[in-house]
Amino acid sequence: MASEAAALLDQLMGRNRNVTGDDAVKEEHFSDPEVCKHFLCGFCPSKLFINTRSDIGICDKLHDDHFKEAYDASNEKWQRGYEERFIEYLEKLIRDLDKRVQRGKERLQRSEDANTNVKEQRE
Ligand SMILES: [Zn+2]
Fold first, then answer.
1. Which of 3, 37, 81, 87 is the most exposed place for a label (fewest CB within 10 A)?
2. 56 and 46 in contact (C-beta within 8 Å)?
3. Distance (Å) from CA 119 to ligand 1 centroid
4. Where are the strands (E) in the chain, listed by range?
5. Within 10 Å of residue 38's Cβ, how many Cβ atoms?
6. Could you tell me the pTM of the whole model?
7. How far is ligand 1, taken at its centre, from the CA of residue 47, in Å?
8. Cα of 51 to ligand 1 centre, how many Å?
9. Distance 45 CA to ligand 1 centre (A)
10. Do 38 and 45 meet the contact criterion of CB atoms below 8 Å apart?
11. Which residues does the annotated region (Disordered) include (predicted)?
12. Which residue has the higher pLDDT, 119 or 19?
């Protein structure tokens, strides 16, 4: 029993050393440029449209839950402008998709008009 407790203690102390030692300085942080800030705010939109005609490409940034958890727990949430940029990005996505839908509707309307003309000419 005693050795088990010691092992557990070692484990805990080892973990503490990692957090407070030199490693902590080098530890990755959610503000690192390679971390996806959209993911921190909620989700990364790049995954929404994979294999569709609106595919916006793959996001090459990190999507790690531990960054998101650290961000959620930090007092910097809502302080860094990530949410504002996320919303701006989503709004741009929506505008682009709306345009695409509008163009599709216009194309459909034109082909319907063309079909009606052909029919009328035949009759
Ligand atoms: Zn991303």
1. 3
2. yes
3. 50
4. none
5. 19
6. 0.65
7. 8
8. 16
9. 7
10. yes
11. 103-123
12. 119
Q: What does the DSSP assignment read for 103-120?
A: HHHHHHHHHHHHHHHHHH
Distance 117 CA to ligand 1 centre (A): 48
**Residue 35 φ then ψ, to 5°:** -90, 135
Residue 75 alpha carbon to ligand 1 centre in Å: 22
Q: 121 CA distance to ligand 1 centroid (A)?
A: 53
Which residue, 48, 33, 32, 41, is CA-closest to 68?
A: 41
C-alpha of residue 42 to centroid of ligand 1, in Å: 10
- For residue 27 the two structure tokens come to 């530890």
Identify the residue whose tokens are 């942080």: 29
Cα gap 70→89, rounded to integer Å: 23
Single-letter residue type at 26 = K
Distance 60 CA to ligand 1 centre (A): 7
**Nearest CA among 45, 109, 106, 32 for reference residue 71:** 32
Q: Are 56 and 45 in contact (CB under 8 A)?
A: yes
- The band of 116, judged by pLDDT with boundaries at 50, 70 and 90, is confident
